[in-house]
Amino acid sequence: MNRRILRTTPGLAMLIAAGVILSAARLNAQALRVCADPDYLPFSDQAGQGLENKLAALAAKALGDKVEYTWASYRGPGGFDGFLYQTLNAKKCDVVMEIPYGYAQVLSTKPYYVSSYVFVYRKNKDYDIQSMDSPILRKLKIGFESETPPEMGLKIRGLVQTATPFDIGDKAGESPALMLNQVQDGKLDVAITWEPAIGYFLPHYPDLQVVAVPNERALGAPEQYAFPVSMGVRQGDEALKNRLDDVISKHESEITALLANFGVKLYKPNVPGAVSY
User: Fold this and answer.
1) What is the spatial distance between Cα 183 and Cα 185, in angstroms, rounded to a whole number?
2) What angle in degrees, to the nearest 10, is found between the helix axes of 252-261 and 238-250?
3) What predicted TM-score, i.e. pTM, was given to this entire model?
4) Can you list the domains of the chain with their CATH numbers?
5) What is the pLDDT of residues 191-241, one digit of tens each?
């Protein structure tokens, strides 16, 4: 049997060389090393179904990187600060996809959205709730998330003693939808919670009304309930911050669409209660 001789033509040589270069590029691709909770929807999970997962994929694609996760719970002993200490600040990963802008433990990117705490109640109740100072709140069963700005607002007004605290941000396995269920079932008259945590679930609760908590107060200094949200990297990692800032600037429309898919309502900064859809 005659043996065939494979001759490498100039064109084929170029294709082979290009393939080698592409393969090397893939092998040498940088990783966007992300810190995330493995079981805290709608924000993140190991199946990649959360808002932060989708945002990480978008950012990595824009950077030409691949995503690598370090999984650790936000919830439980140490809370979110403990999570940062054990992951980002321990250099096990390089970025947290969602964090309040200016958070002390990290270097913040530019914000990519602004959202707000909200009142949630049944539409058929038609409560006149426009702010934390609304008189009707003194007559209602209120639920709130512990260690959040609404808790402080309730304390200032002497309402926290009769309200029900929830520790959804601390207890593994609990969903933000728990508070929606409580309102839907009449166990609470009104819940005060972070809108991005519940927006994903709201289509399943068509009977519920959502009203932004404005940054205002009848007496005394203004309070803050709307917050800009950014990505966070380690202090001093200006290079990664700048790369992510560039992604946020160039892919604003894609990020906004992604937020909308998760039911996140975007509020205009510095305008109490003003919402941008």
Assistant:
1) 5
2) 80
3) 0.84
4) 29-113+227-269 (3.40.190.10), 114-226 (3.40.190.10)
5) 999 999 999 999 999 999 999 999 877 766 778 999 999 999 999 999 999
